[in-house]
Amino acid sequence: MSTPILCFVGRSNSGKTTLIERLIPQLVQAGYRVATIKHAGHGFDLDTEGKDSWRHKRAGADTVMVISKGSLAMFSDVSDEIKIEELRDRFLDHQIDLIIAEGWKSEGLPKIVVVRDQLGEVPVSQEGLLAVVSNKPMDLPVPCLDADDIASLTELITRRFPKRPEHEP
Fold first, then answer.
1. Does some domain include residue 125?
2. How many other C-beta atoms are found inside a 10 Å radius of the C-beta of residue 14?
3. How many domains in the chain?
4. Residue 72 and which of 56, 87, 126, 162 are 20 to 30 A apart at CA?
5. Strand 98-102 relative to strand 71-76: parallel, antiparallel, unpaired?
6. Beta carbons of 116 and 15 less than 8 angstroms apart
7. Cα–Cα dist 69/52, whole Å
């Protein structure tokens, strides 16, 4: 069974990251193992100039991995944008209960739209729409939750994506 992916979508600065940051501890407290994937539409650079990994990448390595006890980071060139399902299948621990993705508004994946001003401020596929999070009440065919109601959001998510049974050692 593939790990479920739940996307949080909305315009820039709508509060997606803050909402996810507040949600994760509640899911962890409920026993979930959570992974996150962030879509950076305008590119990004995480490596620090002068560090060994930066030097390896600058020297021409296609992929650079940095590992220490308990942590792993990877920087890799990709020829095109990779589908989120491929990232899940290739790189994530299969004991993860839920992947929270920030972005992928046009995919048919389950999604929660974070709205600041009005629904429709960013075009979003209605396919897979589970809820809208907003500080303004809206009359919608899906639940509309207040951005501060993390408990209700957690309940909606845990009902929709039940935690996996414990894996045998």
1. yes
2. 21
3. 1
4. 162
5. unpaired
6. yes
7. 18
Q: What is the pLDDT of residues 43-63, one digit of tens each?
A: 455 567 777 777 887 777 877
pLDDT digit string (tens) for 94-116? 788 999 999 888 788 999 999 87
* Residue 16 C-beta-side C-alpha neighbours within 13 Å: 25
User: Token pair 């501890």 is at which residue?
Assistant: 25
139: CATH: 3.40.50.300
Nearest to 134 by CA among 153, 156, 116: 116
What DSSP designation does 32 have?
Answer: -
Which tokens sit at 94?
């299969």
Indicate whether 23 belongs to any domain.
Answer: yes
DSSP character for 76?
A: E
CA distance 58 to 54: 6
pTM: 0.81
